[in-house]
Structures are given as structure tokens and as C-alpha cells.
Amino acid sequence: MNLTQNDYEKLVKQASPNSKILKNCLGAFLVGGAICTLGQGLITWYYSLGMDKTAAGALTSITLIALAILLTAFHVFDKIAKFAGAGTLVPITGFANSMASPAMEFKAEGFILGVGAKMFSIAGPVIVYGTVASMIYGVILLLLGGM
Amino acid sequence: MELMDFVKAFVVGGLICVVGQILIDKTSLTPARILTGYVVTGVILGAVGLYPMLVDFAGAGATVPLTGFGNSLAAGVREAVAKFGWLGVFTGGLSACAAGIAAAILFSLLAALFSGPKDK
Fold first, then answer.
1. Quick check: is B18 in a domain?
2. Higher-confidence residue: A9 or A50?
3. Is B27's Cβ below 8 Å from some Cβ in A?
4. Phi and psi for A79 in degrees, rounded to 5?
5. Touching check for B117 and chain A: CB below 8 Å?
6. Binning pLDDT at 50, 70 and 90, where does residue A18 land?
7. What is the number of domains present in chain B?
8. Which of residues 33 through 72 in chain B touch A, CB cutoff 8 A?
9. Which of A3, A74, B46, B57 would you label with A142, given CA atoms 20 to 30 Å apart?
10. Which pTM does this prediction carry?
11. Does B44 fall in a domain?
């Protein structure tokens, strides 16, 4: 092919964002899938120990959250997240990291307005809008039940 | 039988994360907005009964992503409203997610106590 420098740059520009997105998506798929598979392993294990559905589910969440925050404390989570992107963000591990990371980051501002407040900079809106959405659902259920 | 459960968890969980990755790369949404969107989407899909079907199919592949958190909120409200009426609107959601939230609060506080910002 006969390409001028300009044409070539254009082609690279066209191709590279997409191949980058493809690579990011692959990372997200593999790591996100692995975290969910770990969750499946944990819940299966907790079932086999004789726990009921609620207990096994809750303990699985607690375990994944503990692992994510442990890795955050040792500054390993960020390294995995760099490769995984949404693969570590979207599972419950991302929620846990979003609390631990600013808590550690703003330690110097004290334990009240630093750690205690900054912990909720991302988790706060998640809890606020999640809770309110579920309450709207509850009101709808009440209205439907009352008719 | 059990092996298939793991495959389904991997594929469905992975795909839910790919959607998030596309949102990160193709839009200017911040992680906070994406996570909030996931939880609210989970509440809505849980409320209309679609998400519980996905949980039946994919297990942890559906419960571990943040949409599963939203689904738990919706399921908690549904059960609590059936049991306690209007009071359940207030108690159901957060009760169902209490373990995860409390764990994240405690462990984050411990992480801040025993670790800190990365040394430069």
C-alpha cells in the first residue's frame, strides 16, 4: 500500500482507540469473571458447611469485601485495577475499594472529616440512590397491594 | 453440574463488567456515576423480576456485581413490605445489605488505621 505519513497517522488513530477498548474489555471480562467465579466458589463452600442461603450470601459478600480491602491496604488492588478496569470496579470489590482507598488517602485530614467522611465519597451516592430507588419500589408495592 | 455453575458465574459476571468497561471507555461517566447507575439499575431489574431470574441462572455471576447489590435492596424491601407493611419500605433495603455495608465500613477504617497513602 502507498500511504503518506498523514494517511498512516489517520489509520492508526482510527484503529488504536478501538483495539484499546477491546483490550480493556478483555481485561474487564477476565478479571470480573474471575471475581464472580471466586464468589461462586465461596458460596458453594459456605453452603457445604451447612449455612442457609442468606448466611452464605452475606458471608460471601463479607469475604470478597475483606479481600478487596486487604489488597487495597497493601496497594495491590490498584495494580490489578489498572489492568482490569471495570473488572474490579463493577463487582462488590469496587464498592469496597471505593471506601477503603479514600479512607487511607485522607488519613492526614483526621479520622472524622478525613477517614470517616471521605470513605463515603463514592459509596455515599451509591447507598443514597440505591436506597431511595428501593423505597420507591416499596411504595409502589404498597399501592398495588392496597388496590 | 457444579462446574457449569462456575462457568455461568464467570461468563455472566464477566459480561456485566464488560458493559461497565464500555461505559468507561465510550462515555465520560465517572466511576461514582457508573456504580450508582449499576445499583439503581439492579433495583429496577430486581423490582420487575428480571434480575432474580438472572441470579437463578448465574448465581454469583449476578449477585457479586453491584447490580446484585441493587437487587438485594429491592428483594429486601419486597420481603419487608410483605411482612411489616409500610414500615418495610424503610427497613427492608438497608437491612438486606447491612452485612456488606458494615463490613466495608469496618475494614476500610482498619485499612486507614494500619495503612495509608502510597509512599512517593
1. yes
2. A50
3. no
4. -65, -40
5. yes
6. confident
7. 1
8. 34-36, 38-40, 42-44, 46-47, 58-61, 63-66, 68-70
9. B57
10. 0.92
11. yes
